[in-house]
Every structure is written in structure tokens, then in C-alpha cells.
Amino acid sequence: MSNLVNRVAVIGAGFVGSSYAFALLNQGITEELVLIDLNQDKAEGDAMDLSHGLPFAPTRTKIWFGSYADCGNADIVVITAGANQKPGETRLDLVEKNTRIFKGIVSEIMASGFDGIIVVATNPVDILTYAVWKFSGLPKEKVIGSGTILDTARIRYLLGEYFDVDTRNVHAYIIGEHGDTELPVWSRAYISGINIADWTKGKNGFKKEDLDKIFLNVRDAAYQIIEKKGATFYGIAMSLVRLTKAILQNENSVLTVSSYLEGEYGHHDIFIGVPAIVNRNGIREIVELDLDDDERKKFDHSVNVLKQTMGPVMTSD
């Protein structure tokens, strides 16, 4: 890991990788940004295109297209490569093909001498984060999946729209699998210190049943966006930049990322989306929310679905 300047390496210059690089440059988060892709022309073209915007960027950033060798001095490697989710396909449908792809990617990263933090954004993100941890041999706190960071952003946005409150003042979490079994933690959702349930007690026409519709729109957002434009990339790109900033600036911020459980929430040996404190060393600790009985059952179900899907993949060669 470099101590002089911050270096971020992006594996995969597709929709998500290039959007992430663009957002990273616009926010001036890192001093060095290297783009790596099997399609070298695409990575080189992106590096050139981004560099031409440097006169208007908030800080100076060195941007280039490179190879896995450039991961050796990287502080963070962000993996966005892999097969994309197609219309009608669930994130879990991508397990086998992306696990095979990731085995090769991670071996190349580690061969460079890399000892920083790996962030995984490719779906199914929870299972692939577990795979990266196994393939890399890195400590669990240095492998982080994007988890439900975007789902949490989506619910904060939609609740802000519904209650006509700045989304940044909405404090709510989506936890569990980044996918069909995720769940909202309504019992711990607040605006201005007031629980969401109290905001829906007939005041100003707000209704509790509307919260269920809001959650369904969060859960199914990716399907809706994929159907309309083919892929999701801006929201996840900004989510990844937020995570990158929390790491590089040693923020100790709480973000709902895919983290390794060792007894938290009553589960072991699984990466899944939960609130975690993130800093320069990766995941400092997991924040264990006091779930109500219904939320705990739904979370248990989410864990079980991931484990059943992951089992045959992670035990095969």
C-alpha cells in the first residue's frame, strides 16, 4: 500500500466502472486512478476522456489505463467487472459465471503484491465478496462488498420525497442480501429523531401502508431501471465513491456494506449487508441493530437464501 499518495485501481471499465471513475474524479477523492480492463482500448479511451476534464476537476488526479501490476501500490481495488444482470434475471442467477471470472481476477490482483482493501460491486455482491475473501486470503475487514449501501440510499431518497424532507435527514437502513430477500428496518428508521411509525399516524395524509409500497420500489428498483435503460450505474457509482471516501479519509462512517459476520445478528461465515463502521483499515466493526421479531425472521431468511445459493459454488473448483 502506498503511503505517499492515494491510489485507486478499478477493475472493469464498463458502465459501473467508468461511472465510478467519473464520479471519483468530480469529487476529487484520490490522487491516482488506474483503469484496468480486458478491453484495453476501452480503458485507455476512458482514461484519456477523463483526463481531458482535469482542468475543471476540484483536485489534480493522475489517471491512466494500466494492468494488474498497478494494483501492487493501490490502497483500494474496486472490482466492477463481470457478467451483467439481464432483464428478467435475478442477481443470484449470476453466481456461477461471476465466481469463475473472479477467481482469475483475484489471483492477478494478489500476484501484484497488493495488501490494501478490495471493494466488490459486481452481483451477486454478497456471494462474490465472500469469494474474494476466500480467493485473496486478505483479512475479513479488508474485503468489503457494496452490499445494501445503494438500497439504503434509495429508501432514504424515496422517504425524503414522500415526507417532503431532505433525504440527508432521513436515517433508515436496508439490510440483508442485496437482492430479493433484503428488508427495511422500520423499527430503527427515523426523521429528526422521530420514528417513521410516528410520522404515519394520520398526520398530513401519511399512511403506514404507503411504507410497504416505498420498500417494494426500493427492492425492485434495479429491475425497473434495467428494463428501461439496460443497466444501473449512476447510483451504485456514487455509492462506491461514498465508500471510497470513508476509507481514504479514515472517516469511521456507518455504511450498510456487505460485511463478514462472526456471531453478529446470530450468524456466522457469511458476507451480508449490515451497518458497519468504515475507516482506513476497512471495516472497524459491525453495528448490530436491535431488530424486532419480524425483522429478525426476515434477516434470517435472507442469510439462509444466500447460504443455500453459495454452498455448491464455493465448495466446487
What does this structure look like?
The protein is of the alpha/beta class. The longest helix is centred in the C-terminal third of the chain and has 22 residues, at 293-314. The two termini are 30 Å apart. The chain has helices at 15-27, 40-51, 95-111, 125-136, 149-163, 196-199, 208-219, 221-229, 234-248, 293-314, and strands spanning 7-11, 32-36, 62-65, 76-79, 117-120, 143-145, 170-171, 174-175, 183-184, 190-191, 194-195, 253-262, 268-279, 282-286. Helix content is 41%, strand content 20%. The strands form four sheets. A six-stranded parallel β-sheet has the order 3-2-1-4-5-6, with helices on both faces. It has a three-stranded antiparallel β-sheet with strand order 7-10-11. Strands 12-13-14 form a three-stranded antiparallel β-sheet. It has ten helices and 14 strands.
How many strands, which pairing sense, and closed or not: the largest β-sheet?
A: 6 strands, parallel
Order of helices and strands: EHEHEEHEHEHEEEEEHHHHEEEH
Radius of gyration equals: 19 Å
Strand line-up in the sheet with most strands: 3-2-1-4-5-6
Question: Averaging pLDDT over every residue, what do you get?
Answer: 93
Q: List the total number of helices.
A: 10
**What is the 3D form?**
globular
Helix % is: 40-55%
Structural class: alpha/beta
